[in-house]
Amino acid sequence: MRTWTLIGITFFMLIKTATAQDQVGCTQLLEDAREAYQAGMVELVPELLNPCLESGLSGEELQEAYKLVINAYLFDYLPDRADSVMDDFIERFPDYQPAPGDPGEFLLLLEEHLQELAARQIEEQEQQEDEGEEEPDREEVQKEPPIREEVPAEKKVFGSIGFSLGGNITFPQLLEKYSTGNPSLDLGSYQLSVPGIQGGAIMNLNMGRNAEAAFEISYTRLRIHYLGEPFSFSSYTYREYENRLGIPVSLAVKFNPDDRVKVYLRFGIAAEYLFSAAASATRSYTETGAIYLRDVELEKENITGSRTRLNLMGAGGLGIKFPFPGGMIFLESRFNYGVFRTNDEEQRYNSQDMTWLIYHVDSDFRANYLTLSAGMVWNLYKSQKF
User: For residue 375, what are the domain limits?
Assistant: First the structure.
C-alpha cells in the first residue's frame, strides 16, 4: 500500500513539474510572437503560438495569444483560418470587450461571429417553441448581440494608393527612313540613349482575390539618341528630349495571391500627352582633308510642333510586391509600345537649322520605352461602426 502511495505522489509531482515548464515555455513563445508580429513577420506567429492555444497559457496571456494568431491570419490574407480560431476564441472568452488597440479587421470579425452566435441561439429557441417545449430562460438566450461600445472599424482592404519613381530607356522603332541625302545610303540609326526618368501617383482597386485594377497619373521624360551619316563626308549626333503626361489604366494579375510576397503580371493602355520636346545636335566632318574644320553645334531647340501631341501606349510588365504594416512596397518593370507615330510628317522640314546645318530630317518612328520603377502604396479600407 505504501508503495502505491509513493508511486502516486511521484506521478503527481512529475505532472506539476511538466505543466510548470510548459507554462514557462509558452510564456517565452508569446513574447517571441509579439515581437515577430510587431516586426511584420506575421507568418511566424501561428507557428509559435498554435501549440500553446491548447495548453500552456491561461487568462490574459491566452487571450493575447488568440488575438495575435487571429490578427496574423487576417494580415496574411487567410480569412478561413482566422474564422476557425475566432470560433475557439469566442467559446473561451464569450464576454470579451474590444480594447482600444484592437485592429478594425479583428473587431469586425468578432462582431460577425457574435451575430452568428446570437442568430443560432434565436433559431434554437424558435425550434423549441415550435416543438411545444417550455420557453427557456431569457437570460440564457440573447435575442440581440451584446451591447458594445461603438468603436470605429476598418472593414476590409478594398484598394491602395501611393506613388512610384524610376527610370526608362527608349527603344525607337524606325518605320520609314528619311534623309537629306539618299535614304538607302544613309547609315544612320537610333542608338541606346542615356536613361530618362518617370514618376507618378497610383491607385489600385481590388478586383477579387487574384487581380487588381490600377489608375495612374504619370510624368515621363524620354531621351532619344540618333547617329546619322547622310553623306560620306559628314556625320552627326542627334539628341531629343520629350516630356509627357500620361493616364495609364491597367490590370495586375497575381500569380500567388496567398503568399506574402506577391508576383504579378500587368497589362493595360495609357493615353499620353506630349507637352514639350527639344533637340540638340552636333555635326562632324569625316573626310580626312577636313580635320581642321570645326564641328557644328546646334544648341537645344524647341521641336514640340514637329511631334504628335497625343499618343496611345500599350503596356505590359512584371512586378513583385513586399508587404509592410498598412501597405506594400513594389518593384516593377514595364514595356510601353507606341500605337501611333511619334513625329508629325507634315512638319518634317520645320527646323531649317536642323535640316541645313546638321543635315538631319525626321524619319517616321515610334518612341517605345522600357521602365523600371519602385514605389509604395498604402491600404484603403471600408469603414463602419458597430
Answer: 155-385
Same structural domain for residues 42 and 141?
yes
DSSP conformation class of 260: S
Cell numbers 525626321: residue: 362
Give the tens place of pLDDT for each residue, 99-121: 877 887 888 888 888 888 778 77
Give 280-336 as a DSSP string: EEEEEE-SGGGTTSPPEEEEEEE-GGGB-SEEEEEEEEEEEEEEETTEEEEEEEEEE
Residue 210 and residue 109 in one domain: no
Number of domains in the chain: 2
Higher pLDDT among residues 145 and 339, named by residue: 339
Q: Which of 118, 152, 186 is the last residue of a domain?
A: 152
Q: How many CA atoms lie within 13 A of 279 on its CB side?
A: 25
Q: What is the pLDDT of residues 176-219, one digit of tens each?
A: 999 998 888 888 999 988 999 999 999 999 998 899 999 999 99
Q: What is the pLDDT of residue 302?
A: 95
- The pTM score is 0.62
CA 296 → CA 178, 182, 279, 360, 363, distances in Å?
Answer: 21, 21, 14, 12, 21
